[in-house]
Specification:
- There is one protein chain.
- A 7-stranded mixed sheet has the order 3-2-1-4-5-7-6, sandwiched between helices.
- The protein has helices spanning 26-43, 62-67, 79-88, 124-132, 151-162, 166-179, 199-208, 223-229, 237-247; strands at residues 51-54, 72-76, 94-98, 111-115, 140-146, 211-219, 257-264.
- Strand 2, helix 3 (79-88) and strand 3 form a beta-alpha-beta unit.
- The protein has a single domain (15-264), classed as 3-Layer(aba) Sandwich (Rossmann fold).
- 37% of the residues lie in helices and 16% in strands.
Length: 265
């Protein structure tokens, strides 16, 4: 299946961006925009009554989804992250809980959102299978993962090793302060990538777990590395847009981030 092209989302060009720290990050706001677009595509065929976000972090995806009127539950095993999210959340239609997905009734939701999570969990396919086998037939899943062997992942891989030790983590914090970057997704800074995905491996997950791939997007080429190393505010906004437009012309294997919409059989 060919990737679906998607229009670049500029800062403050969508109302839901008021409710997320992702607004100033071209990478993250366009990932969020793709997720919103996929939800709208789901709604074009059937009503969506409930969404579960697994590994919600500090809420920069589920809070804007709630702002659009969706009934959302967000879970994460990191209590520090959910505490921040509870403080940020202004919506009654968003419920937050510090909880492992194994303890959640996955089968009661219409859509499961699993974004930038699989690369962090020790047994990625077992984790994925445990979710899918408890989804009821016809449930949608939105999954996002970084390209595991792209330039960004290769350059940052030594940093993932540093995160596994206390001294290494302190070094990462110092480097972040020097570069003017900050973590936008979680309060749990000790979260190295443990898996480095290829399209073939991800498609294997779908096939072995009987998921139908409906559509996918591939976004950005070099920008992910630039934004990871430097604050997005210190780089020309036109650079991110140019890189995004380039990514829409490239084969998915060359792009930095993949976003999939699947459905259970």
């Amino acid at each position: 299946m060919k990737p679906t092209q998607f229009n670049y989302l500029s800062e403050e060009s969508a109302p839901y961006l008021r409710y997320t720290d992702f607004a100033g990050s071209p990478l993250n706001r366009n990932r969020l925009s793709c997720i919103v677009g996929m939800l709208e595509a789901c709604e074009a065929t059937e009503s969506i009554h409930s969404i579960l976000e697994v590994g919600c972090g500090i809420g920069n995806i589920c809070i804007p989804l709630a702002s659009l009127g969706y009934d959302v539950k967000a879970i994460d095993i990191d209590g520090a992250s959910t505490e921040i999210m509870l403080w940020k959340n202004p919506f009654d239609n968003l419920r937050v809980e510090t909880l492992a997905v194994e303890d959640e009734d996955v089968g009661s939701y219409d859509v499961i959102v699993l974004t930038e999570v699989l690369e962090h969990v020790p047994n990625a396919e077992d984790f994925f299978r445990n979710i899918v086998r408890r989804m009821r037939p016809g449930t949608w899943m939105i999954l996002t993962v970084p390209k595991g062997y792209g330039l960004c992942e290769l350059v940052l891989r030594p940093g993932y090793s540093l995160k596994r030790s206390g001294k290494g983590l302190e070094m990462i914090k110092i480097i972040r302060r020097m570069l003017g970057t900050r973590e936008l997704t979680t309060a749990n800074v000790q979260t190295p990538h443990l898996h480095f995905f290829t399209l073939k491996r991800i498609n294997g997950f779908f096939e072995r777990n009987h998921l139908q791939l409906i559509s996918f997007h591939s976004i950005f080429f070099l920008w992910v590395l630039l934004e990871s190393l430097f604050s997005a505010n210190r780089l020309p906004a036109s650079m991110a847009r140019w890189d995004y437009l380039l990514s829409q012309k490239l084969a998915p294997a060359f792009c930095a981030n993949w976003i999939f919409l699947q459905k259970t059989e």
